[in-house]
Amino acid sequence: MAIAHILRPYQVEIGHAVLESVLRRRGLTFTVEIARQGGKNELSAQLELLLLTLAMRSGGNLVKCAPTFTPQVRTSIQRLTDRLRDAGYGDLWHTRGGYTVCVGRARQLFFSAEPTANVVGATAHHLLEVDEAQDVEKEKFYKEFRPMGASSNVTTVLYGTPWRQDALLEEMKQANLELERRDGVKRHFSFDWQEVARLNPLYGQYVEQERQRLGEDHPLFRTQYLLETVNGGGGLLSATQRAQLQGHHPRLLSPRAGQVYVAGIDLAGGYANEEEGSLGREESRRDSTVVTVGELDFSACDAVFREPAVRVVQHYWWTGVDHATLYPQLADLLKSVWHCRRVVVDATGLGQGMASLLERALGRATLSPFTFTAASKSRLGFNLLSAINGGRLKMYAPDSSPEHRELWRQVSQTEQRFRANRTMDFGVPPSRGHDDFVMSLALLVEGSGYLPRSARGRVAE
Q1: Cα separation of 427 and 281, whole Å?
Q2: CATH code, domain with 270
Q3: What's the CATH number where 171 sits?
Q4: Is position 40 within any domain?
Q5: What pLDDT is attached to residue 231?
Q6: Per-residue DSSP letters for 77-133?
Q7: Which residue, 221, 249, 266, 222, is CA-closest to 397?
Q8: 404, pLDDT greater than 80
Q9: Helix (H) or strand (E) segment spanning residue 394
Q10: Domain that holds residue 451
């Protein structure tokens, strides 16, 4: 009854199913997918609070794991201790060792599910929970966490949102759906953002803004709000997205008075530090340097789109020119011709030297070095997709130039590959050529967040 007074109906439905399995020692495994910020963590904390209370005299363990100790496990610990305080438990509870919350003789154990974490030996007597299960390695779960509940036939709950089709959460979900077809016992619960919004209109307004900002076909929106899985890979841009990227404004030879310009630079010889096996790996280092110049449109800034739109207005392309020879021309174009307010440059590997030289010429306030790693490149790709989906990035009109043709050739060849922990790799496979125009375009988007003080003031109003 306590759960029903606090949680929303869909959380109560899940909670009752889990409690029935725990109290009757049925040992069921549940998969729970709730749209991001829809309340799965609150449900987990309330279940833990109730079960710790019921077991405070008899004792026993509950176990919860998450992909990382910081911040995910720490956040779960904080939420449970907050609920204990809210419930007025006073000195009936205490923490131990930084990962255990004790209520009487009952204990809630929190563990990291990182591959190197040492968790063997713990026992789950009442409940085993896996938070963000889509990011937990299957081998880690089956080898080290699943056996924790063997002696007590423990009830297990995997929480999360979909990601790849080969993820632990998706595998367990499909197994649950098959079991449901056989015996009619509900084991999988799924509530997308619209289900949550029916009970929380403010949440619905927020997600509507996210849909406008990211685009409904953005991988993060599809997985975290629509609860759809993504395929292993494929083309980065769909036909619709390519159509959105194409603009109608003219290419410019020089800046227009009163406008603000930014640039993205992909340097020849970059990516030396990128991890092995990624798209565009070291063996296929670019032999071209590409500069993409964009004009910012601050009229696009509003409550949803807090960054300006960017119109690509010029490309520069050098092949086989070393950095020392290229530097004077590059610095002059960026500083004296376009008066760029922000320049994002690939500072990976050999790019570090050029980035340092440009910083001296343009100043630290203007030059932003970008180092490619798996995580930073993933963010770059997601931001590129968001800008295109939101109509905030437009290419100049076709002009039959080599640069225009090469940009679109590379766009058509660029692939994406989804990896663990909601990261994405993108690029042109080495056998198909280069992707320096695409990377330069993505770096331009990275620099398009520049807002002069006057524009910041207008947005804030």
Answers
A1: 9
A2: 3.30.420.240
A3: 3.40.50.300
A4: yes
A5: 84
A6: HHHHHHHHHHTT-GGGEEEETTTEEEETTEEEEEEE--TT---TT---SSEEEETTG
A7: 249
A8: yes
A9: strand 393-394
A10: 231-460
Q: Which amino acid is at 30?
A: F
Report residue 201 as tokens.
């209109």
pLDDT band at 53 (very low <50, low <70, confident <90, very high): very high
Which DSSP state fits 344?
A: E
Same domain, 183 and 303: no
Confidence of residue 276 (pLDDT cuts 50, 70, 90): very low
Sheet order of strands, 415-419 included: 233-235, 415-419, 423-427
The dihedral region occupied by 207, where left means phi > 0, alpha psi between -120 and 50, and beta the remainder, is alpha
Strands of the sheet with 188-191, listed across from one edge: 93-96, 100-103, 106-112, 60-66, 127-130, 155-160, 29-34, 188-191
214 lies in a domain?
Answer: no
Phi first, then psi, for residue 294 (nearest 5°) are: -130, 145
Report residue 459's pLDDT band, with 50, 70 and 90 as the boundaries. very low
Residue pointed to by tokens 């019921």: 54
What does the alpha-carbon distance between residue 262 and residue 318 come to, in Å, rounded to a whole number? 19
- Distance in angstroms (rounded) separating the CA atoms of residues 46 and 48: 5
The set of residues, in sequence order, having a beta carbon less than 8 Å from that of 89 and lying 6+ positions away, is 103
Cβ neighbours of 178 (radius 10 Å)? 10
| pLDDT for residue 272 | 42
Q: Is the peptide bond before 147 cis (omega within 30 degrees of 0)?
A: no
Residue 298 structure tokens: 């601050």
Residues 113 and 180 in one domain: yes
Pair 168, 243 in one domain: no
